Amino acid sequence: MRSAGRSWVLLAGFIVFYIIYLLFGALVFSTIERPEEERLRHELASLKEDFLNRSCSSAAALDVLLLRVLQAHRSGVSALQNTSQPSNWDLTSSMFYANTLVTTVGYGHSTPLSDLGKAFSILYALLGVPFTMLVLTACVQKLLFPLVVGPVGLLHRCGLEPRAACALHLLLLLLLLVLCFFVAPAALFSWLEGTWSFLDGIYFCFISLCTIGLGDYVPALQPGQKNKPLYQVSVMVYLFLGLMVMFLLLRAVHKMADVHGLTRLLQLPRCEEASPEDDHRPIICEPRDKSPTQPLQSASQTTYNTINKG
Amino acid sequence: MRWKTVSAIFFLVVLYLIIGATVFKALEQPHESSQKEAILDEKVMFLLNHSCVNSTELENLVKRVVSAVRAGVNPSANSKNQSSLWDLSSSFFFAGTVITTIGFGNISPHTEGGRIFCIIYALLGIPLFGFLLAGVGDQLGTIFGKGIAKVEKMIVKWQVSQTKIRVISTLIFILFGCLLFVALPAVIFKHIEGWSALESIYFVVITLTTIGFGDFVAGEKGRGHISSQSGNSNLNHIYLNYYKPVVWFWILVGLAYFAAVLSMIGDWFRVISKKTKEEVGEFRAHAAEWTANVSAEFKETRRRLSVDIYDKFQRATSIKRKLSSELGINATLSQEMTPGMRTLSVNLGDERECYPNLTMSLSPVPGALTRNGSLYLNGLSPDYAAERRDFPVGDSLK
Question: Where is the Potassium channel domain (chain B) (predicted)?
Answer without folding.
Answer: 81-139, 178-270
